[in-house]
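Something for you to look into today, if you have time. Could you write out one complete protein record for me, on any chain you like? Leave the record below and I will have a look.
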Amino acid sequence: MKGNDNKKTLKDVIRRRLNVLMIILTVSVSVVSLFVQMYLQRRHSFDMIRAYLNDYLEELDVAAYIHTSFDAWMDVIDGEESEGKEAFFDNERLEKIVKVNHLFLSEISVVDENGFVTYSSNPDLIGFHMTDSSHTTPFLCLLEEEDRYSDQLYPSPFDGSLDMIYIGRAFRDKNGFMLFGVNQDAYRQFRYNAIYDIIHDTKIGITGYLIHCDLDKKIVCVTHTMQDEVGDFFEEEDLLPDQEGEIRESISVLYGEKSYVAAQKEHDFYLIGVYPIKEADQFELQNNIMVMILYVLILSTVFAVLFLLLRKVVIEAVERTHFCLKQISDGDLEQKVDAGGSKEFVDLSNGINGTVDKLKQLIEDEKDRIRSEMENAKSIQTSIVPTTFPKYQDQEPFGLYASMDTAEAVGGDFYDFFMRDEKTLVIVMADVSGKGMPAALYMMRAKTLIRTFAEQGLRVEEVAERANQELCEDNTAAMFVTAWIGFLDLDTGVLSFVHAGHTYPVLVREKTTDQGTSEDEVFFIEKEIDMVLGGIEEIDYTRQEITLQHGDSIYLYTDGVTEAMDIADHTYDEKRLLQLIREKAGELKGNDKNDYCKAACQMVYDDVKKFAAGAMQHDDITMMWVKY
């Protein structure tokens, strides 16, 4: 700790490095400012031209232009200061109006409140009802709430060879409306007038201008200041874009003056914006913007350099500390923090390391407490299954032994056996999905349910069905139980059982040869397998039966036996289990039937442990041997 006093503080380190970098910054800004000014002038000019092009395209709304024109017509026909709409209920007058305004108007008609054309410049339309054509029917909305309605260019319902657009305007009293017809030529005239009104007086800056030309490069309209300069066609084809919607920017000498040029292609025309470089150079605001940019650049650079300093001196140390803390939070409590650098970070590292050491001690204390509680839980679980095997007299018709070895402190396997009445032995072998405390709690509930229903005198399939129904209720953990439940009639040897998704039991049948010697026949009781308990409600379970002969044994077990794995991940499997019992069961000795059953279970357990030597036990190992 004494050596830390010679370390420079974080404040001193940052101050020294910042002074050096500020000198470098001042020189660098002076060099780049010239290049920035040139770039900004170019970018500003093209952005301004683009803005004019966009404004033009937004204003070029021919439909709106037509509507505005006919609004003015209606002021004359049915306005507050007009001579009265009735003055236009005259076919000859309507015909004269069309002749005088033939550039903009093709037809004009009066429709009455019933939808009939009563007066028209076209005699063929008189008497036509608006519902006679699908194109004219929508205009009847003008007799209700709408004041105006129009459609698009389409073949006229009155003359299919001519494309027309119709515009309707309702009378103020809703007792009819005016119907104006505009043909293709008149529509083009409206379009030209709209283009002319927008472009003629539009200038970019002071001396810049707009040019509108068709796809054949013929100039349709130009800003009035350039009307005498541009000619009839736009000759600079290399300035025009190829794709619709594309904008091509360039610097070119156009009409004798070097200019910024931006050309945009639309569906049926080109739009060109031109802004002379001479005017751009004289644009004083550009210099003011440049000064602002320089200040912003300097300020931004200072902050950027300050960030780099902080990263080098502070952030990297923080990152090293963060990395170590992440390793510690992931469980590596042996990790040591060494941020280094300044005195502050050295002190911080020492403080974190001291805290971790205290945390390690607290964790060890907590582990000891949990270990003690789990041992108590294991004792409680062990006490739930029967562990006392009475010394039945030789005349009693069965012997029995069972064992349970959990993979964790507590497990989900369980077995049970009890006398339901004087002649019926109930045997149960089951395995709950999962491990640990949740499986142990579920196991206790399942065991209690099976025993309760069995003691009520129900048949074995009814016991399974009732237990399944109870386990399915409120099964939010989605757990289930594989089980083998058997009722052994000690008088007859008939074993009634339900096989609910569990492992196949092994039957060991003693046979006597012709020579008077005995040998064991060993095989799985491979009967029908039903659904597990707790899986699906309202399941019917099948009662199955076999008859045991005197000397027969039943070996019940969970999959912790056959699925035990060695260090190479090979499983013990059913084939090895049958082979072991077939070879060794006849050699087992015992003072009575219970000792024989215990020796048989120990034989299998020892062989499983020998097979899995050196590998971790992944599942509970539970087994039961019953000799009749």
Residues 328 and 335 are 6 Å apart (CA to CA). The mean pLDDT is 82.
